[in-house]
Amino acid sequence: MIVTQIKKQKKNPSRYSIFLDGEFAFGLYDDTILKYGLKSGDNLASNLIEKIRIEDELIFGKRIIYKYLSRRARTIKEVETKLTQLEVSRKTVNEVIDYFLETGYLNDVKFTKEFIETKIRRKPTGSKLIQIKLKQKGVKEETIDEVIGEVYTQNQELEKAFEAAQKYISRNRAIAADNFTMQSRLYRYLVSRGFQSDTILEVIKEFN
After folding, report:
1. For 28, which of 32, 83, 94, 166 could close a Cys bridge (C-beta 3.0–4.6 Å)?
2. Containing H/E element for 165?
3. Phi, psi at residue 29, to the nearest 5°?
4. What is the CATH number of the domain that holds 24?
5. Within a domain: residue 11?
6. By three-state DSSP, how is residue 43 classified?
7. Gap between the Cα atoms of 171 and 19, Å rounded
8. Tell me, what's the pLDDT at 32?
9. CA–CA separation, 112 vs 127, rounded Å?
């Protein structure tokens, strides 16, 4: 097939529309065009066209994810979902993920550590709720278990539970006089904050 026109796209100046035999065929990044030295008049075999498009898809995937990761840290699953939504091929998805794993931009262990530290710094949060949130982001259970044991010990969680309980009681002084009501509501509140049952019971004992 003959390249009859290479036209810069208006919405994305780094991409060009490629016309074959007088009709629009596909878009390519400038990097791909330069690498293959494409120009009007070139006669492209079908296998070369396929090779060019596969390579261009990889460039597309890398650029999209680089921008995606520049906003905030992401999990492997989040990156996979993003590319899948853009209908990127499975092969390219794997290659893009491998690239960002190798360069260190994608790291579920690092993400998990930072996520936990941020959560407990901003607001007293129990390990159960943290685990749920991380699973929703696609972090593997073994990674969560490994990291949470390192950065959020039982003693730390107990301290955070006390902190949460004190804040709750100070906001709800009207129920503090009724010990049963206070314990019942405090228990439900700490459960909603993701604390373990044994941790909650230990905290409640201190407020008897």
Report:
1. 32
2. helix 154-171
3. -75, 155
4. 1.10.10.10
5. yes
6. strand
7. 68
8. 93
9. 12
User: In Å, how far from its chain's centre is CA 207?
Assistant: 39
Judgement on whether residues 140 and 190 belong to the same structural domain of the protein: yes
Q: Which pLDDT belongs to residue 95?
A: 97
Nearest 10 degrees: CA dihedral of 96, 99, 103, 106? 40
Determine, yes or no, domain membership for 184.
Answer: yes
Q: Tell me how long the chain is.
A: 208
Q: Which stretches of the chain are assigned E, i.e. beta strand?
A: 3-8, 15-20, 23-29
pTM for the whole structure: 0.82
Whole-number Å distance between alpha carbons of 15 and 27: 6
Strands of 23-29's sheet in order across:
3-8, 15-20, 23-29
Q: How far apart are CA 151 and CA 204, in angstroms?
A: 25
Q: Is there a domain that residue 49 lies in?
A: no
Which residue ranges in the chain fall short of pLDDT 50?
A: none
Cβ 116 vs Cβ 148: under 8 Å: yes
Rounded Cα–Cα distance for residues 174 and 182 (Å): 9
Q: Which amino acid is at 27?
A: G
- Please, which residues bridge with residue 7 across strands? 17
Half-sphere exposure of 103 (CA within 13 A, CB side): 11
* pLDDT of 11: 87
Output the CA–CA distances (angstroms, integers) from residue 146 to 12, 76, 90, 143, in the order listed: 43, 17, 29, 5
- Match 């260190």 to its residue by tokens: 104
User: Whole-angstrom Cα distance, residue 164 to residue 172?
Assistant: 12
